[in-house]
Specification:
There is one protein chain. It contains 15 helices and twelve strands. The protein is of the alpha/beta class and 357 residues long. It has a ten-stranded mixed β-sheet. Helix 4 runs parallel beside helix 5, helix 5 crosses helix 7 and helix 8 packs parallel to helix 11. The model has no long low-confidence stretch (mean pLDDT 89).
Length: 357
């Protein structure tokens, strides 16, 4: 009975957050380590500069997740990293996060075996997003810059997660589309996903992550960035159009039309519209909006009620500057333009009245 009541509280709080235009999603970094060195990721850069500290112990992660709940209520919490499965206590973290939230993980999949997969689902995991940038082994090793792992390792993880998942557990393959991706390769991954009963989520390549923004980023020299020329010659002028056509054909592609169409905007303008509904919690305790990534508070230094007020103040400051736009499209499917809930409509009317009065 207690578990039923707790589930009711969780879903009620999450739905209230969504309908009232409060944050409903949070990506929570739980580790400073990764077993890959992917091109375009900040991990190799920060590792080389010795800027990465030790990971917070389990108790510290639990305290942060509890504080996040006190500040924002129940959320969809995605445990990220760099690579969350490097933590041997990941199942315990999932258990802690599941008390008040609905929990997923974002992983490269190379470290997942059957026992780990079973322990994650048993701990309360609801979904797993596994990165598979390509089905070509040579290209995979060029991107990850590690020779030890290949495409088969990632596929083994995907299939193992699916085989061990409970009836409510979901697995999605995340495909980062870069300047060397083709529609045929995208379709190949979709067909594979269809065969193993997985969903597919696409995202345009973006190297504009926090640490990258602090250094001189040579956008012209970034071989993975999708150029406008590629958009025209490879994707017939619209990456969104290719994805939507594949979605109609196979049905297992994640992403609403309004969000997917922003991909073309990102490629052409380097910016993407978003709504302040998603959060990012970093390993140093900083919190930002997702995908904006400008820290507005710190979960360790501020009380939960202060964190909430910091969020409100930051949103109002952004609103005063004009439409919300971010130069980072990382994992932006369905986070950039969520469905317009009651809170958005009421807020728009209220602000319009306030201007007149």
């Amino acid at each position: 009975m207690a578990s039923v009541i707790n589930e009711f509280r969780k879903v009620s709080s999450l739905m209230a957050n969504f309908m009232l235009s409060r944050p409903f999603y949070a990506s929570v970094d739980i580790t400073n380590f990764c077993n890959l060195r992917c091109d375009g990721c900040d991990y190799p850069l920060l590792l080389g500069q010795k800027q990465l500290g030790k990971d917070l112990p389990l108790e510290g992660i639990e305290a942060r997740i509890e504080a996040l709940h006190k500040a924002f209520g129940s959320l969809v919490v995605v445990l990220a990293g760099f690579e969350p499965t490097v933590r041997t206590d990941l199942a315990s973290i999932i258990t802690a996060a599941s008390r008040h939230n609905y929990v997923g993980i974002v992983t490269n999949g190379t470290l997942i075996d059957r026992e780990k997969a079973k322990s994650y689902w048993k701990a309360g995991l609801l979904f797993a997003s596994v990165s598979l940038p390509t089905t070509d082994d040579k290209r995979f090793r060029e991107i990850t810059q590690v020779q030890r792992y290949g495409v088969r390792d990632v596929k083994n993880a995907i299939e193992t997660l699916i085989e061990t998942a409970p009836i409510f557990g979901k697995v999605a393959i995340t495909v980062t589309v870069d300047n060397q991706t083709t529609p045929a390769q995208m379709e190949e991954i979709i067909v594979y996903a269809k065969n193993v009963r997985a969903a597919v989520s696409f995202q345009p390549y973006s190297a504009s992550k926090p640490a990258s923004a602090l250094i001189s980023y040579d956008i012209a020299g970034d071989k993975r960035r999708i150029t406008e020329e590629t958009l025209e010659t490879v994707f017939a002028g619209s990456l969104a159009g290719i994805i939507l056509e594949l979605k109609r054909k196979y049905g297992n592609v994640i992403g609403r039309t309004v969000a997917l169409r922003n991909f073309d905007t990102f490629i052409r303008e380097g910016m993407i519209p978003f709504k302040p509904r998603s959060l990012k919690l970093y390993t140093n305790g900083n919190i930002s909006l997702y995908p904006e990534r400008q820290a507005f508070s710190n979960i360790d230094a501020r009380l939960p009620e202060q964190v909430w007020q910091d969020y409100r103040q930051h949103v109002e400051e952004l609103r005063a500057q004009g439409p919300f736009k971010a130069n980072n499209c990382y994992r932006c499917v369905n986070l950039t333009n969520p469905t317009t809930p009651m809170g958005d409509m009421v807020g728009t009317v209220w602000r319009a009245i306030a201007k007149v009065v």
